[in-house]
Structures are given as structure tokens and as C-alpha cells.
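HOLO CASE FILE
Compound: 2-acetamido-2-deoxy-beta-D-glucopyranose
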Amino acid sequence: MGDASNTLPEFKQIHEMHALAAAAIAVLAAVAASRDALSLTASLGPLTTLPAATLGTARPPWSAERAIAAFERGVDRSRLRETLRNLTAVAHIAGSDADRAQAEAIQAEWAAAGLPNTHIKTYFPLLNRPVSRSLTLLAPERFEATLREPAVDGDDTSRDEEVVPTFLGYSPSGNVTAELVYANFGSPADFAALAARGIDVRGKIVLVRYGSAFRGLKVRAAELAGAAAVLIYSDPAEDGFVRGPVYPDGPWRPPLAVQRGSIMYPTFYEGDPLTPFVAATENATRLPQSEAPCLPKIPALPISYGEAKPFLAALKGHGVAAHTIANDWQGGLDIEYWTGPAGKAHLFIDNEFAVKPIWNTMAVIEGASEPDRAVILGAHRDSWVFGAADPGSATSVVIEVGRVLGEMHKRGWRPDRTIVIATWDGEEYGLIGSTEWVEDHVEILNKTAVAYINLDHGIAGDVFRAAASPSMANLVRQATKGVRDPNSGQSIYKKWNRRVGVDTPEGRVPQVQPLGSGSDYVAFLQHIGIAAVDMRFTGDEGIYHSNYDSFNWMAKFGDPTWKYHEALTLITGRVLLPLAHDRVLPIDFVPYVHELRTYAKDVAAALGGASMPVEWAGRLDASIDVFEKAARKLRKEADHLRRDDADEDNVVVDAVDGSGDGIDAGVSVLTVQGGSDDGLAGIVPQQHPKHPKHPKHPKEPKHRAVNDKLGFGERGFIDMAGIPGREWYRHVVYAPGEWSGYGAEMFPAIHEAIRRGDSAGTNKIIASVAATLRRAAGMLAA
Ligand SMILES: *[C@@H]1O[C@H](CO)[C@@H](O)[C@H](O)[C@H]1NC(C)=O
Ligand SMILES: *[C@@H]1O[C@H](CO)[C@@H](O)[C@H](O)[C@H]1NC(C)=O
Ligand SMILES: *[C@@H]1O[C@H](CO)[C@@H](O)[C@H](O)[C@H]1NC(C)=O
Ligand SMILES: *[C@@H]1O[C@H](CO)[C@@H](O)[C@H](O)[C@H]1NC(C)=O
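Model generated. C-alpha cells follow.
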């Protein structure tokens, strides 16, 4: 978002809207606060019913290393492929019969494999479905859009062209006949640029292109600017022929492929639009649909670039030539883009809204020595259509992890801490299944969850990316040192560091991005402060949310050998199993310090830009100094315990360390054998030279105290008052950007106050964030 937003008159409106939303939501927040604690215990059985005190019982002789070795022997690439084939055989949009059948099939498969406590958790969110729609250009000439994605040779599932018609989640119905205006990416700055040139979008059908920000925020900006309706099209410059050969000849978007998606405004909260703060149970208290602040008020439809072209061409010669505003206003079609207004179009949308059930598949593997501490792994299962890359690739990895852990469980393996595995439903509409589950279990998760691992859109190529709480960054880096990149043969870590290495006080390490929004980690991290990580392999992909995100696309372009599915499964095991087993949790807050310092510098720059006193940022710096001291002290305590444990076991155990430049640098009890360059081929677990009688128990008081600081330290960043105007978001360091949606904004409340030009408010919020950072430091230092 550019500086232009500062001056937008719409911002006044937004804050009036905030106030309205706040009033309605306050009612539900009050319900959440008063809910009956006993009712929360129902579905997480083992986490709440087991006695907390198992101190002194013999710890089963499983280390993370042994568990990883067993896990890696169990992972089966051909099964990953077969699972994806099954998942993509039918369209399975959230709340459909096929979606439910898959939830049940996964539960049955996990139970058969040996996973204990499998169950399906049902919630009842508001969803919409397309009933009918039409789009016609009436003038200067007539063109009727087909709104269909035609069958493609060699892609069996594409034969069913309208199995899920092209539509947008939560678009209201509408019937609009109006002139057209082109508004580039549809950002507030783009609308301001049109206004500055005297181009009035009020009452018009606004044509915007995908890219740059979350689609719902394009509709929100258009709504605030007074537009009557929105068409969102996939410009070929974004993911079509401009990028390379199109499907089925290449991985990029063909002319008639359409990106479906949700346009719920993520500004205020995620999850079911009608039940912020509380779970969407069957009889939950619901907001009236008209009062849900995240629901768009104007109709919107997604279209292909093939069908957008006549509408864009109709604008030529009217308004201003798009490239005169900025170069990026000219898209990739071979026509000259103009703004309009011009032409005339008719858009009709009939969408049916209803509260419908969705189904999360869950499994709980009770921890043997710390049943009251939990690590959660999840990927969503629902898709817009067949969903091979999004989300099937990730779902298949989570199903495989569950299956292998089930087999291990049958053979006597037990994690030390409890592992919860989920395939979430309703993610595509607004991260619903995960958010409702979190809202349903706030208290128990608050007391027990040490980390959440998210996978989504897991594989669409060979480029590894991770986003995480900085406290988890080194664990992810460590995990990638032990897995080989199938294409290059080097470790994932090496390739990743070569591509996006960044210099930090701890050396050159691969960049781990901040978590914004766009997947199921949001409620965990930003609503209740559970450290989270999201991992994926990306690549050339132009089939996102279309009918062509299919098994055939994956087999031809995304991951023809399924080796990246296997690699992601192995990496996931190397993140999950240390969290479940390590006597001292592999979490570290020192990497937070460098990030916080960078974000504080950005605050200082923004203060300067807004002519507010730059020295206000000094209060953040002072708190970060305190935080740094606490984080370093905690790291020392943790390392000390690790060394003691290692001495006792007579094995070498390295501290969590994300630096170093090879797979062997931080791999502890693993021996690297074989003659390949970095020796990955023969990783086997080494015999403990002297098998410990009974390794130290994670529940021993010293371990327990340090682990609680590591496992719950992220909670310190939570301010229960939330971000002013969008109180559901409570993490003071990270929130989805008000106008980017997917991207994270750091110290969000501060930047929002600066952008409002609210000097006194900014000063107050900086003080409050600085106090929260000190409180976080206090928790680590306790
Ligand atoms: C795929 O589906 C078939 C038919 O339902 C089933 O027999 C098979 O076990 C499934 N395979 C996997 C890997 O899920
Ligand atoms: C849409 O509105 C027009 C003009 O008001 C009306 O004639 C037409 O019947 C409406 N179409 C539908 C499908 O409701
Ligand atoms: C919800 O309310 C209906 C109607 O009163 C009732 O039959 C049903 O059992 C309730 N469901 C739950 C889960 O309480
Ligand atoms: C988590 O527990 C702490 C300590 O009891 C409490 O202060 C905090 O409000 C809880 N967090 C949430 C999200 O309920």
C-alpha cells in the first residue's frame, strides 16, 4: 500500500465501518469470554482428560532421531501419488457431499493405519454457492461471455466443465447494467489515481486484474470507492502466456482459465463471517448476515483473460491511456489499456447463501511423557474444484504423515508430547475449519499448544519457501539440512540459502518470511499466539483455483516424479518430530530480535514520513533491548540443559542453530554415509554409544520450566485488547496488512495509526506495543 492511502477520503468511511463492526462483534466477543469452560473439553479428549502428572514413569526409549529414522523409512512416494489421485478424482468444495466423503475416507484410512483418536469435527459456517450468472458486453458491440473453462486434451477431470461454476466466495447476488472502468490492481492507491484524473467509478462496473493483493481487498476498495460491481480477471502478465507456454502445453494459465476464490474481507477477522470469536457450532449465536463487516456488499465475478479482452478493448480511447498513469497499468494483452469509463455491460449473479456443515478430520496421538503439551500439524482439504496443487499436494503430505505415524504407533512408538493432526475444511472460503476449531478450543490450546505446523498448496514446483514465527525459523532451517533436493542433489538448505540467503547477526541463513494471511496458521498465531510455520515448494503455475489444477497438471508440470511431495513429507517430519520429542523444545527467540529491530526501523521511517517524532520509535528499541536480554538468557538456559542431557546420554547434541552451510553442520545424532557430495543418501540413525538407562524426562521440573518458556513464549506478543478496529487480531508484531491481505504487516497497529495521521493515537499505541514487548521479555526471563 502506498502513501496515497494517507490522503484517501475513504479512510474516514473505513473507520466508521470499524466502529459499526466493533459494536456487533463486541456481543460475540462477550459470548466467547463467558463460555463454559467444561464444554471446551469435549473434542480434544486426551489433552484434557489425562492426568497431568506422569512424572517418574519410564520414558519410552524414543528420541527425535529414532522417530525420524522410522518415519523416513515409512514414507512412500507412490502412495503420495495415489492419495493425490484419489483426492483429485472429484471436485470437493467445502460443504459438498464429496468433501464429506473425503473427510470420512481419511479418518478411516488413518484409523486403519493405527492412528488413535481419529474423529471428525463439524462446524456450521455461512457459505455461498453459484446458482446462475451471466456477463454481457452491450456496447460498443455485443459479446456474451461463456464463463466456462473448456475441456483440455489429456486432462480427464477437465471434461466436466461446470462441475463448480466460476464464482467468488461470498459475492452477493446482483443485477447491474453500467459503464465499465479499468482500475489496474484495484488497490486504494489505484482508485486514488483514477480519482486524481477525474475518473468517477461510482455506479460503474470496475474491471480489475489479479495480483499484488488479496482479491477480497480489491472488491473492498471498489466498494468504498462507490463502484456497483467488480470483474476480476487474470491478466496474462500475471500468470498467463506472458510468463510462458500455457496449459496443456506448459504450466501457465490458458486463455479461458478462471481464478475462483473468496472475497471475504480479511480485515476484521478470519473464519465464519457470522461467528467471530466463537465457534460456528450448530446453535452458535450468529451475527445477522447484513451486519457481518467482512461480507462484500457489491457483486463480483472472476473472469479469464480471454473473456476480459473485449471488455478492456471497449475502453480504448476513453478516459486516459493506462500507461500514462504508471507503466504497470498496461497489462499483458496485446491491446492498449485505457481507463474508461466507456461501453456498457450487464452483469447478473445469483448466489445462494446458507449455513452449511463442514468437516475437519482430526487425529490425536497422546504424548507418553507430556500428554498436556501439544504440537499441531494441519493442511486444508477442501478445494475450489479438484485442487491438485491447492491444496491436494499438501493434504496428501499430511495424510501420509498421519498414515506413517499410525504405522509407527501400531509398532509401539509414542511421541513424548501430544501430536494433533488435521485436514481442515472450509479454508478456501476464509480459513474456516481451522479458525472455528481454534475458537472452539482457545483455553485448552492456550494451555497446551507449543507449535502449529501448516501446509497448504504444498507443491507446485521445486522452489522451497518457508514463513514462520522467528522463534521457529531455525528449526525449519535445521530440518531442510537433512533432506536432499531431488533436482540438484544438494540439501534443500543449501539450495534455499543460495537463492534467498540473508545476512543476520548469526551468519548467512535462508530467509524465512513473516506470516501474514492466506492459510490456516492465522487463528493459531494471530488470534491466540501459538508459534507457527508454513512450508511449501512453489514453481511456474497458472492454474491456481481453476478447473485445471488437476492431477494431470501435477503429473505433467508440478511434480512429475512426486519427489517434491516426498521431500516436503520428510521436511515436515523433521520439523514435527523434534517438537514432539526433544527434551528441550527446538524453539529459540533470539532470531526474533533481529526481526524486531528491522521492524522498529521501519516504524521510525514511517514516523518520519508522516512528520511525527521519529524518536518515538526509541521506546520500541528500548523494549527490544530488554527482549534481547531475555531471549539470550533463555537460549543459554536451553543450551545448558541440552548439553547436560547430551553428557548424560553420551551423545553429541547441537543447540538449535540455523546457520552453518551444509546438511551435516547441525545434524546431531545422524550419521552421514555414502559417497555422494553431501552424503545425504545414507543417513541412518547412529547407535547411542551408551544407551541411557532412562533418558531425562521432559517433565522434570528444570526442563518443564524452560520448555514452558520456549513453548508459550509466543503468547507474550498477544495483546488481548487486539488491534484497534479489528480486535480479533491480537499479535502485536504480525497481522495481515489492512490492504494486502496475504502479506504481513509488522507492528500493524502502529502503522495503521500512522496512516490515519493520528499523532496522539500513534504515540499511545507505540507505548502499548513497547509494554507488550517488555511483557513478552518478562515471560521468557521468568
Ligand atoms: C484410493 O481410493 C481407492 C478407492 O476408494 C482405495 O481403495 C485406495 O485405498 C485409495 N488409495 C489411497 C492411497 O488412498
Ligand atoms: C435485471 O434487471 C433488469 C432491469 O431492472 C430486469 O429487466 C431484469 O429482469 C433483471 N434480471 C434478472 C435476471 O433479474
Ligand atoms: C441445536 O438446536 C436444535 C433445536 O433446538 C436441537 O435439536 C439440537 O440438538 C441442538 N444442537 C446442539 C449441538 O446443541
Ligand atoms: C491464555 O492464558 C493466559 C493466562 O491464563 C491468559 O492471560 C490469556 O488471556 C489467555 N489467552 C487467550 C487467547 O485466551
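CASE NOTES: The longest helix spans residues 617-649. The mean pLDDT is 89.
CLOSED: yes
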